[in-house]
């Protein structure tokens, strides 16, 4: 998603504006292509040989500072600190919800020195954009953590409970504007609408370019409620600027004093899980070696510390159970997009 800002000064003639807009679009496309090419070259050059303990590239399919980048850099730190890999680098490759990075990794067949960070958002992007490359074109290694969404309203909102919010939403769905920080948040709102008996097509959802924008939209009265990652909202909740009405989790979480949506009668449990994949074409021995490396990384003190700092919940899935999980999530998310129209 992109956000637009007002241009200063007098507006140029329409033809000039058109030419400038076209130039900006072409320039943006060239820049994205250049970044992707440079990043892909960096991956390819680092992927010589197949000794995963000698060198590794961890690919974050987004810009620095986001959730996928956090996973990549915390893994890198844990592996360095414990001598699990001699040389490990992180490469950021943003674009199209992560599908640009996925496409580049999909052509590195047989090269085990690359790990792609992904998760719910990447799976959703392959469905939303009908991308040429899908998770079937890489080797899934593990789901490692999940992050929960929280349903929030401004502190001065008239809605004190989730039930009160749902009653007002059901009474006039289009008059209750929602927001969120990304496509995953919209999936959560869609799932909540279905659980409440509301047609998602009738909802008003105003996307924001990140969790910060969604919070600001609530605080300035643009939207009435939002779904967002608990880590993105915790400071505002603890400061009293936002009121948390429900945690979107299968069950109560230790240390988080927020009732789940499920226990309040709305059975929604879609989580923002994070996964790791490798290129296709690996031998069974190479795949098993990568899974072993991942599990060793997750067992380090540095990684366990990161789980606490990021408010992640550890959820480790590998092997055949992982294949089943990914298939079920694909079906689930596809259904939500269909309901969104």
Quick rundown:
This protein is α/β, with parallel strands linked by helices. Helices cover 45% and strands 20% of the residues.
> What is the CA-atom radius of gyration, in angstroms?
21 Å
Helix content: 40-55%
Distinct helical segment count: 11
Strand content: 15-25%
Reported by name, the CATH topology of the largest domain is D-Maltodextrin-Binding Protein, domain 2
Please give the number of β-strands: 11
* Biggest β-sheet strands, sense, barrel: 6 strands, mixed
CATH level 1 class label of the largest domain: Alpha Beta
Seen as an oligomer or otherwise, the chain set is single chain
- Principal-axes shape call: globular
Order of helices and strands: HEHEHEHEEHEHEHEHEEHHEH
How would you describe what is shown here?
By secondary structure, this protein is α/β, with parallel strands linked by helices. It has two domains: 22-146 and 275-340, 3-Layer(aba) Sandwich (D-Maltodextrin-Binding Protein, domain 2), CATH 3.40.190; 149-264, D-Maltodextrin-Binding Protein, domain 2 (3-Layer(aba) Sandwich), CATH 3.40.190.10. The protein is 45% helix and 20% strand. The protein is built from eleven helices and eleven strands. The strands form two sheets. Strands 2-1-3-10-4-11 form a six-stranded mixed sheet, with helices on both faces. The protein has a five-stranded mixed sheet with strand order 7-6-8-5-9, with helices on both faces. α6 links the parallel β6 and β7. The longest helix is centred in the first third of the chain and has 33 residues, at 14-46. The two termini are 19 Å apart. The relative contact order is 0.16.
